[in-house]
Design goal:
By secondary structure, the chain is α+β, with helices and mostly antiparallel strands. The chain has eight helices and ten strands. It has one domain: Aminoglycoside 3'-phosphotransferase, Chain: A, domain 2, CATH 3.90.1200. Strands 1-2-4-3 form a four-stranded antiparallel beta sheet, covered by helices on one side. A two-stranded antiparallel sheet has the order 5-6. A two-stranded antiparallel ribbon has the order 7-10. It is globular.
């Protein structure tokens, strides 16, 4: 069925009357939709935040549950914040994942690593920096600053265990269902990483209401000191956007580099 659809999102009515969503993209990189399917299934197993059920997957696309679209109440945001904290209790033996993934259209190396600082430096920051340097978007000084940040990560970011994270958790990937419930979508970047990195990205392009973060803090028994480190965590996503979408993100990247590098 998927190969008869054009690229994009399609609501498909099945024979029994149920509607599903077909995400179709003929130019998707190999393994793109398989990574998203694995990520959704990993999140679903935690029984925390809702995710769409996966019905079928192939190289052309994904067939998933239609969650509808609605408006979240303050109580919905509170439940979502508490459930994200519960998701972040699902710890792994190491940083990474059993398969590589995708953050947008950028490949994400999820090779297992025992050290979170090494993982973030070698599998997140440095690959993006090398890509931007090769394209001429970053210069030698920029790359040297990123190297210094990578070397200083143990002094800049407190040690934390690897937990299951969404990995690309900007606010648009926290979808409001028809019922008002918040659900996680677009899960190709799921891996075991730092919980604070998920929280940080939720502040990068707008952010949930205070009730969400208050419920997260209450459920996790953690404060909001992570906000002091959001720029460091989000440097990865800014570099990724620089590589995917161009020089409009260069100023934001360099602001972080000047601050920490």
């Amino acid at each position: 069925m998927l190969d008869r659809l054009s690229d994009g999102f399609h609501r498909v009515r099945l024979d029994e009357g149920r509607a599903v969503i077909a995400k179709v993209r003929r130019s998707a990189p190999p393994g793109f939709f398989a990574a998203e399917s694995r990520g959704l299934e990993a999140l679903a197993r935690t029984k925390t935040l809702r995710v769409p059920e996966v019905f079928a997957v192939d190289e052309l696309g994904l067939l998933i549950e239609d969650l509808g679209s609605g408006r979240a109440t303050p109580a919905d945001w509170e439940r979502a914040g508490a459930n994200l904290a519960r998701l972040h209790r699902h710890a792994g033996d190491s940083f990474g994942f059993d398969h590589d993934g995708w953050c947008g259209d950028s490949p994400q190396n999820n090779t297992h690593c025992a050290d979170g600082h090494v993982f973030f430096a070698e599998h997140r920051l440095r690959p993006q920096a090398a890509r931007a340097f090769a394209s001429g978007t970053l210069d030698g000084d920029d790359r040297a600053r990123i190297d210094r940040i990578c070397e200083r990560l143990p002094h800049l970011v407190p040690a934390a265990p690897p937990v299951l994270v969404h990995g690309d958790l900007w606010i648009g990937n926290l979808h409001t269902c028809a019922t008002g419930e918040l659900a996680l979508i677009d899960a190709g970047a799921v891996h075991y990483g730092w919980a604070e990195a998920d929280l940080a990205m939720l502040t990068l392009f707008g952010e949930p209401p205070p009730a969400f973060f208050g419920a997260y803090a209450s459920e996790s028994c953690n404060g909001d000191s992570w906000r002091e480190r959001t720029a460091l965590y989000n440097l990865y996503h800014l570099l990724n956007h620089l590589n995917l979408f161009g020089a409009s993100y260069l100023g934001a990247v360099r602001a972080v580099l000047r601050r920490y590098g």
